[in-house]
Amino acid sequence: MAGLHKSDFQNPVINWIDSRLPVFTMIQKEYGVFPTPRNFNYFWNFGALAMVNLVIMIATGIFLAMNYTPHATMAFDSVERIMRDVNFGWLLRYAHANGASMFFIVVYIHIARGLYYGSYKTPRELLWMLGVVIFLLMMAIAFMGYVLPWGQMSYWAATVITNLFSAFPLVGEHIVTWLWGGFSVDNATLNRFFSLHYLLPFVLVGVVFLHVAALHITGSNNPLGIDVKGPQDTLPFHPYYTIKDSVGICVYLIVFAVLVFFAPNFLGHADNYIPANPLVTPAHIVPDWYFLPFYAILRSVPDKLGGVLLMFGSIFVLFVLPWLDTSPVRSARFRPVYRVLFWVLVFTVVVLGIAAGKPAEGIWVVVSRIGTAYYFLHFLVILPILGKFERPLPLPESISRAVLGVMGGGGPLPGGAAAKPTMEKA
Amino acid sequence: MTESAAAPHVAPHPGGAEVTKRDFLKLVAGAGAAVGAGAIVWPMVDSMNPAADVLALSSTTVDLAPVVAGQAITVVWRGKPVFVRHRTPEEIARARTDEKARLPDPAADASRVKPGHDQWLIVVGICTHLGCVPLGNRSTEVRGDYGGWFCPCHGSHYDTSGRIRQGPAPANLAVPPYAFEGDTKIKIG
User: In chain A, how long is the greatest CA-to-CA distance?
Assistant: First the structure.
């Protein structure tokens, strides 16, 4: 018949569906037989973990929204009702709040993998940029979600961050009034943050779809950073990486469970259990841990507009990273100088995060400024220059050669090496 | 050793192949995943059940002392109106004699009240047709042709026992679960 897809499935029901909408063929192609480099290490699990985390956040979020009231006079109490009265409400709330932290842990490691192994380099530039869009969306969603419980930190974080936009000359004040829907953070702001917090995760799902689609065009990178040369370099995604991902998911769930059941408020801030009071500012306004490095960059510049521009700039440099790094070698395994500088960058970001948690005085101001300066130095100066002068280590011929040794990289394993051990007759 | 350990234990398998360790692992992993999925789904489903504060409001106590004979009040129970009518002896008698008549939903009046408290009729004030609140509790409202209640939406008539007599409603006004705590107090639900 014209127009129908020629389905290879035997089962008549599956065949009927597949010939009209080839979802089963698509799953088989993209997640069944998809040729995946055979030398993945566990850092390649984190994309799948991020997807699992997103599903958990959406599921817990939808059930929380059934009991949450987005009105300034009732929001805080509705959250307490969820914690105390709703069946398993405490579990939903703690899973959602700690799930947000887990999401950032997973995504930061996922990004670090990309930086270390050169996954942002050609031909994966668009894949990388879609990832930065996902990261920006995550930050917006997390920020708005944190406002919803309407505690002291919720209210004052909302005030500080929305006030940033007043830094822009001429239009700044008008933008802020428009964002607030009023003359301060109030009910109008809370309502619209709830609406957008519900909406943006589904936009995120769409961008994740594009991110995976782009990945499936170029194929995955691998720890050696060299291209796949043929089928001998790859394994079908199922069962090898479905199983490996399952192991990773179990470890992830253990970490998640430790947080949710044994330390559910460890990553949070005690002040958010105080209802919002527009007349009293907490002594130390701090965002949740995952925003700390950016907060440090924001505070390190004495000029208001400068701080805002630099904070947004710190993410913008990630966008253009594929063009900043001039090295033709992808993986840091073969870049001895870059490898060290990568860890210096990680250290810098961690130190910035610690500095952000301290009051903006004394040595911490100096530390933040040095850290901010080094962050931009790394991306804007070091990376472009390093690529030209670094002497990389010799790259292996192929993935299968490197993984399977001299005998590999071609046909089946030689008989002698693979003899099955048998017990000798006594 | 007298036997080779290379041959694994063979058990008959539908496909003709031997049962392998892989089959066992797949079964255990699959079962574990199913249990895990259930453990994750159940709290989400259960969170939609009535919460503790809703359950706390699932009973209502009503003080009957201020309600004199011939008077009726409306109380709220589980978000619904409940008619509490203190019937006069005439209303009770009418409810009993009317049983000879053809009732769309037959029920004895004695079965709709508590023994020893025949004067107290407690019914849920929602018409069994499409859910309107019938008129007749207040003395100023019409009570319909049978002295009970009249639903203005589609013209159902209820008698002094809350039974449907005429009109499109299929069933009598529902009697909620209730109990007397002393002579002048009831707990509904």
Answer: 93
pTM of the predicted structure, to 2 decimals = 0.85
Residue of A nearest to B6 (CA): A422
Q: Tell me which chain B residues have a C-beta less than 8 angstroms from the C-beta of A81.
A: 51, 53
Q: Is the ipTM of this complex over 0.90?
A: no
- Mention every residue, 6+ apart, whose C-beta is less than 8 A from residue B161: B95, B98, B107, B109, B112, B121, B148, B172
Q: How many CA atoms lie within 13 A of A194 on its CB side?
A: 19
What pLDDT, on the 0 to 100 scale, is given for residue A264? Answer: 97
A52 to chain B, minimum CA–CA distance in Å? 13
- Here the tokens at position A60 are 């817990």
Q: Distance (Å) from the C-alpha of residue B78 to the closest C-alpha of chain A?
A: 17
Give residue B56's pLDDT.
83
Integer CA distances (angstroms), B72 to A86, A185, B18, B84, B158, in order: 36, 50, 78, 6, 15
Check CB contact of B7 with chain A, cutoff 8 Å: no
For residue B97, name the pLDDT band (cuts at 50, 70, 90): confident
Average pLDDT over residues A351-378: 95
pLDDT of residue A416 exceeding 50:
no
Domains present along chain A, CATH in parentheses: 29-281 (1.20.810.10), 286-393 (1.10.287.980)
- Stretch A44-68: mean pLDDT: 97
Query: Distance between CA A378 and CA A279 in Å, rounded?
Result: 42
Q: Is the pLDDT of residue A374 over 80?
A: yes
- Residue A381 tokens read as 């100066």
Paired tokens of A6: 């020629």
* Out of B5, B43, B53, closest to residue A88 by CB: B43
Q: Nearest residue on chain B to A86, judged by CA atoms?
A: B51
Query: Is-catalytic flag, B13?
Result: no
Statement: residue B2 has pLDDT above 50: no
* Residue B84 vs residue B138, higher pLDDT: B84
Look at A422 and B4 and tell me if their CB atoms are within 8 Å. Answer: yes
